[in-house]
Amino acid sequence: MQFTNSIRAFEAASRVIPGGVDSPVRAFGGVGGTPPFIKEAKGAFMTDIDGNRYIDFVQSWGPLILGHANEVIEEAVIKAVKKGLSYGAPTEVETELAASICGLFDTIDKVRFVSSGTEAVMSAIRLARGFTCKHDIIKFEGCYHGHSDALLVKAGSGAVTFGNPSSPGVPEGTTKHTLLARYNDLESVRACFEASEGVACVIVEPIAGNMGFVPSSPEFLEGLRTLCDTYGALLIFDEVMSGFRASLRGAQGVFATRPDMVTFGKVIGGGMPVGAFGARAEIMAMLSPEGPVYQAGTLSGNPIAMNAGLASLGEIIRKEASLYPRLKELAQRLTVGLEAAARANGIPLQTGFCGSMFGFFFNENPVRNFDEALRSDTKRFAAFHRGMLERGVYFACSQFEAGFICEPMDEAMIDTVIAHAHEVMKTL
Ligand SMILES: *Cc1c(COP(=O)(O)O)cnc(C)c1O
């Protein structure tokens, strides 16, 4: 496989864009080499500017559950484009998309649309603080909630540490209200509550995908619910990734635990920039202009993006009864196959899946939290990633990312990928 054009394109990009990319995860820093520059994509496949074709398990980092260039979404977008790109005034399509989301969740009476997952989460946290009149937030090591200051806190190893900024440019004062706990470890959460003078909210990826794929245990989520109720804090499920992915109702379709607030992104926009946060009416009533907590956006609820989201969700819901079980079967087929390929070559591999999300760690032991994820063999992952890429399989370029199945994939495609994995595992 040749990457000549991509290498040249990356050099050109690096002269005018920091690191050559507009989001760091795209840069292949964890696996080496230059990222393929993409020319076009359709269904399960992407083609780069050297003409290499890949089956894509990244799917734009989650949004494209119906695959690339889905015709229904495409049509909706083109129709909307012809009526103007943005008005800065209300449209009926926003109400339609909001109503379809509220109709799916008994925990959500109202939603507010924004333009990214980052915005959804930072706004949800402001609202939680406004509603509870408390300041502290509890987040988990290894969970990602976007790049806003207060949430960009490094995973420390202590169970109860006040967070340190994980990026220069984030003043310590900004993160002093962010408490860090360990995923799937209720004692560490309890300790945070005890150390705090007032916790506004606990925010969690109920099915984590940003330290690799690491699901919660049901007891963990239920324990969070109990602790939040005991201390009068709100429980926020950050379902920017798992929403409409793990199941039609995200984690709420998988676990019995109910959150107070939910954040969405990725799938909700069908490939366009959309985020949203929702909660029961009493909480959402605090939000401007109904209430005093300010939140705004020039392009929020953008008509093109709303039409893409509505077409995408409409498609998903229309296919719901068959779609999620089928995606789950493919995820299972893939992870079972990868595990068998590893085992045949004496390589320890931990795999998991939930709905259309999956993941694998080159790790001797099961992974339940960030510390355990960090014990994975990243060198081996990098070699595996490179071998698969050269055979036309596009996995996320980091050991600490999840993978995604999309609707146009089928069993034959998965079996081809597994056959490639057998070859590559032999070389590790
Ligand atoms: C991707 C992601 C975000 C951030 O969303 P952006 O649209 O990239 O700003 C927040 N939370 C979770 C769980 C995510 O996976």
UniProtKB/TrEMBL annotation:
The modification N6-(pyridoxal phosphate)lysine is found at residue 266. Gene3D superfamilies: Aspartate Aminotransferase, domain 1 (3.90.1150.10), Type I PLP-dependent aspartate aminotransferase-like (Major domain) (3.40.640.10). Pfam families: Aminotran_3. Belongs to the class-III pyridoxal-phosphate-dependent aminotransferase family. HemL subfamily. The keyword Isomerase applies. Homodimer. Transmembrane segments: none annotated. InterPro entries: 4pyrrol_synth_GluAld_NH2Trfase (IPR004639), Aminotrans_3 (IPR005814), Aminotrans_3_PPA_site (IPR049704), PyrdxlP-dep_Trfase (IPR015424), PyrdxlP-dep_Trfase_major (IPR015421), PyrdxlP-dep_Trfase_small (IPR015422). It catalyses: (S)-4-amino-5-oxopentanoate = 5-aminolevulinate. NCBIfam families: hemL, PRK00062.1. It is an enzyme of class 5 (isomerase). Its cofactor is pyridoxal 5'-phosphate. This is Glutamate-1-semialdehyde 2,1-aminomutase. Pathway: Porphyrin-containing compound metabolism; protoporphyrin-IX biosynthesis; 5-aminolevulinate from L-glutamyl-tRNA(Glu): step 2/2. Its EC number is 5.4.3.8. GO terms for molecular function: glutamate-1-semialdehyde 2,1-aminomutase activity. CDD domains: OAT_like. Keywords: Cytoplasm, Isomerase, Porphyrin biosynthesis, Pyridoxal phosphate. It is found in: Cytoplasm. It comes from the Bacteria.
